[in-house]
Amino acid sequence: MTAHFLPPGIEVFERGWLSANNIFHFGENDASLVDSGYCAHQDLTIGLVRNAMQKHRLLKLNKMVNTHLHSDHCGGNAALVESFHCEVYIPAAEAIAVKNWDSTLLSYDNLGQECPQFPYQGVLVPGEEILLGRYFWKILAAPGHDPHSVMLYQADHRILISADALWEEGFGVIFPELWGEAGFEEVAQTLDLIEALPVNLVIPGHGAPFVDVSKSLASARSRLDYLASDPDRNARHGAKVLLKYRLLEWRSRDLAQVNEWIVKTPALMSAAKLLNMNIDEFTQWLPKALVKSGAAKIENKTLVDLG
User: Are 61 and 203 found together in one domain?
Assistant: First the structure.
């Protein structure tokens, strides 16, 4: 439905929740991909890119560009580099962490996720522009969901690649608040920034592109007010999302193994502290909370994903 609103040279590969959307840009002098999905889906990502390149008779993928470095947005980087020998561009604030592959600074250990190591050749500096396909896009800082996240804005066509800063209904988990860093105010500022832009189409990190930006901003602000008014809500929501994300990959997992993963995931232990639960209480609560929300079921001491 939204293809009608996309100018020539842009295609959106809408994925699910385990892999973020991929946005393919192509022009006479450049072919670029924004966000690469999760590592478990890397073969599909490569297939989508290869098909698009063949369809448009392109010989080279020049750039792989990441809005932020959560594993669902950059997990396919390493495989794409190997397959297409493309350059990787990351938010400038992540450069040292990626160069040293610092697991403390990068989010994968903290969030209990996986991401194959990849190199980078360029950085995305807020306020600067980058050529993607046939259009220049302005790089905008978008902290909140992730402190170093960026959005990309094409002024001529009024298109915003919002990543997880704005979805049609809501936004990504405000992870910094889980470990005691600011996030609520940053989300509010990012939403204000989006509202100040003339935007006709938003391409989010998850879900279909959408055009009713005012409605989505109102929904996001309502959601933010709900979470910020009681930080326990953000902690509960964030914990459930982290387990659901992992369960999407596992499909099913013995509860004892689930509990072992929970205890080894620092962000979840931070959430437990915020919720004033000890480890036993938290490992009992979290799988049941996922079941109560309708996202999973428990069968024979096994946690099973419900899609």
Answer: yes
Residues 6+ apart with CB under 8 A from 189: 143, 144
Other beta carbons within 10 angstroms of residue 23's beta carbon come to 25
Last residue of a domain, one of 174, 198, 228: 228
Cβ-in-10-Å burial (0-12, 13-18, 19+) of 181 comes to exposed
Pairing of strands 129-132, 122-124: unpaired
Please name the residues in contact with 216: beta carbons below 8 A apart, sequence gap of 6 or more. Answer: 166, 167, 168, 169, 202, 210
- For Cα atoms 79, 81, 85, give the angle at the middle one, nearest 5 degrees: 140
The contacts of residue 206 (CB under 8 Å, 6+ apart) are: 15, 16, 17, 20, 21, 164, 167
Tally the domains of the chain. Answer: 2
What is the three-class DSSP state of 108? helix
Whether the per-residue pLDDT at 1 is higher than 50: the answer is no
Same domain, 173 and 271: no
Using an 8 Å Cβ cutoff, are 152 and 137 in contact? yes
Which residues constitute the domain of residue 271?
231-305
Which three-class secondary structure state does DSSP give residue 265?
A: coil
Burial class (CB in 10 A: 0-12, 13-18, 19+), 125: middle
Residue whose entry in the numeric block shows the structure tokens 């990502």:
45
The Cα–Cα gap between 198 and 220 comes to 18
Regarding whether 269 and 155 lie in a shared domain, the answer is no
Shared domain check, 239 and 190: no
pLDDT at position 103 is 81
Helix/strand/coil (H, E, C) string of 19-56? CCCEEEEECCCCEEEECCCCHHHHHHHHHHHHHHHHHC
User: Global pTM?
Assistant: 0.95
pLDDT for residue 47: 98
Do 119 and 66 share a structural domain?
A: yes
